[in-house]
Amino acid sequence: xxxxxxxxxxxxxxxxxxxxxxxxxxxxxxxxxxxxxxxxxxxxxxxxxxxxxxxxxxxxxxxxxxxxxxxxxxxxxxxxxxxxxxxxxxxxxxxxxxxxxxxxxxxxxxxxxxxxxxxxxxxxxxxxxxxxxxxxxxxxxxxxxxxxxxxxxxxxxxxxxxxxxxxxxxxxxxxxxxxxxxxxxxxxxxxxxxxxxxxxxxxxxxxxxxxxxxxx
Length: 216
Fold this sequence. Notes:
Blueprint: E1 6-9, E2 16-17, H1 19-32, H2 41-47, H3 52-59, H4 68-82, E3 87-88, H5 92-101, E4 105-113, H6 114-124, E5 132-136, H7 145-154, E6 160-164, H8 167-176, E7 179-183, H9 190-194, E8 200-202, H10 206-211
Parallel strand pairs: 1-4, 1-6, 4-5, 6-7, 7-8
Antiparallel strand pairs: 2-3
Helix pairs in contact: 1-4, 7-8
């Protein structure tokens, strides 16, 4: 097992259980624009992916008729409404505490706009566990890869484990030269995650501490 110095967390779908909030937000958008709604969580997970603009195309949006930035503003308004009740996954706090106790620095790296991300993390009570919170400077969720690369450039000797729940997380981990573990409770199905060949695909965050994290 690797002696990690840093653990980088994705936020949405990895720490925060916001799948239902994202489905509700998407369905409200679809209804507003006369498009068929997502029928289930399975339907959502099979459709979701990065870049987000392509996910919206798969939902049926035509960006020749509707500007993506306008749709993003609309979605964020709905997401803020529905995600207000979203909770951390049950084993998040114990996992964050265990990782901290083992002397591993923890960060969040997310495609969420940074001020929104900071507010969510602070409200949920997990900011004290995190040495850094890295988010985008806009609401368009294009990519967090460049942020990850810049962080890596300033931490060339870090031994990093990246934990996420999507294909984009695997992509960012690879760009950073980090090991990657993906969890199945988030925004994409197990079959998609396994096809990416990460270090592991796990069903709970608790498995990380038992199998993949040791004291540095």
